Amino acid sequence: MSNIKTTIKGTGITCKGNVKGNIELLPMELFDYIQMRLITHTDLVIYVKLLQLYNHKEGYAYPTISQLMKYTHVGSKATIDKSLDRLTEVGLIN
Fold first, then answer.
1. Does any domain span residue 58?
2. Are strands 54-55 and 60-61 parallel, antiparallel or unpaired?
3. What is the DSSP letter of 1?
4. In the chain, fewer beta carbons within 10 Å around the N or the C end?
5. pTM for the predicted model, two decimal places
6. Which 3 state secondary structure label does DSSP give 76?
7. Which domain, by its residues, includes 34?
8. Would you say residue 83 lies in a domain?
9. pLDDT, tens digit, for every residue of 15-51?
């Protein structure tokens, strides 16, 4: 195993070794969806936040549009709405 570390340009943050226990598993197809332009990077951010907020007991994610705007730093309701529409169209959420 190598000790390769990645440093984020501009911030100097090292990506390997500084994140522990706060990991979400994502379907690798999400990156294909971005490359095929079926979803955007913003859609991915919103999807990950919905995944984090998903309540397995109740069977749904519960945030309001305002909360999603705050959690994802997306500045407009229209952008959130478009992202939710695209995520629905490709079958990632319902």
1. yes
2. antiparallel
3. -
4. N
5. 0.74
6. coil
7. 29-89
8. yes
9. 666 555 556 778 888 889 999 999 999 999 999 999 9
